[in-house]
């Protein structure tokens, strides 16, 4: 009878995330992740067809936690600038945690994978901005929200000065 490991998918993702953050992307391997979770290597493939999919899912779990934190921060912020700053801080933290993983990624900036992930991230950031704007009775256009989302993401990857960025974003959101 095969052994059952409770919450194995979540354990695999947690171990992958721990390995990424503590040891770097080159330390992630299916055999090591499986062993750390008390599972057979083949069992991991029942959940994730490749190392890349395993890593992407581990990062996604963390991203969704960051989005939840940003939503909470938006719900308790006193004004639009503090809400924008909260979204920015979540992005800074997330990208900072995975900078080495993103740098080691084998997809190019011009490839379809990058474009899909960038679009997904920007859409989610735009939703955060929309929630912030709605909370304060503002209704920026969808284009303005998309520009703000792209700007927030670019600011983190290009280390733009936060004060200048916030000044531009405040003009766009109002």
Q: Tell me the total number of β-strands.
A: 0
Helix content: over 70%
| Low-confidence regions | none
Profile the largest sheet: none
Distance between the first and last residues' Cα: 62 Å
* Large-scale geometry: elongated
Mean pLDDT: 90
* C-alpha Rg (nearest Å): 19 Å
How many domains make up the 3D coordinates? 2
Q: How many separate helices?
A: 8
As a percent range, the share of strand residues is: under 5%
Structural class: mainly alpha
Query: What string, H for helix and E for strand, traces the elements in order?
Result: HHHHHHHH
Write the layout of secondary structure elements.
Elements: H1 8-23, H2 30-36, H3 41-47, H4 51-76, H5 80-104, H6 112-135, H7 142-158, H8 162-173
Helix pairs in contact: 1-4, 2-3, 4-5, 4-6, 5-6, 5-7, 5-8, 6-7, 7-8
Question: What do you see in this structure?
Answer:
The protein has 174 residues and is mainly α. The chain is built from 8 helices and no strands. The longest helix is centred in the middle third of the chain and has 26 residues, at 51-76. The protein is elongated and about 55 Å long.
Main attributes?
about 170 residues; mainly alpha; Arc Repressor Mutant, subunit A; 2 domains; about 0% strand; elongated
Brief write-up:
By secondary structure, the chain is mainly α.
